[in-house]
Amino acid sequence: MPTIIVDKEKCIGCGACVALCKNFKLDSNGKAEPVKAEVDKITCEREAASNCPVDAIKIKE
Ligand code: SF4
Hints:
The structure is a single chain. The protein has one domain (3-60): Alpha-Beta Plaits (2-Layer Sandwich). It contains 2 helices and 4 strands. The chain has helices at residues 16-20, 45-51; strands spanning 3-6, 24-26, 32-34, 57-60. Iron/sulfur cluster binds next to α1.
């Protein structure tokens, strides 16, 4: 099952992933996290990962 991982140390809270993909939200510290870390199928997560300015989103397949 693919897993979505956000490196919160790297995340600068720009919100790009949230805007691009409904499977991301910002936590109370303004850092992104997946709504669902384990998904049946990767959809918009890949686009979000490739648009993250600090390369903080990883997808394990
Ligand atoms: S796109 Fe990257 S830096 Fe911006 S909020 Fe998402 S994970 Fe954080």
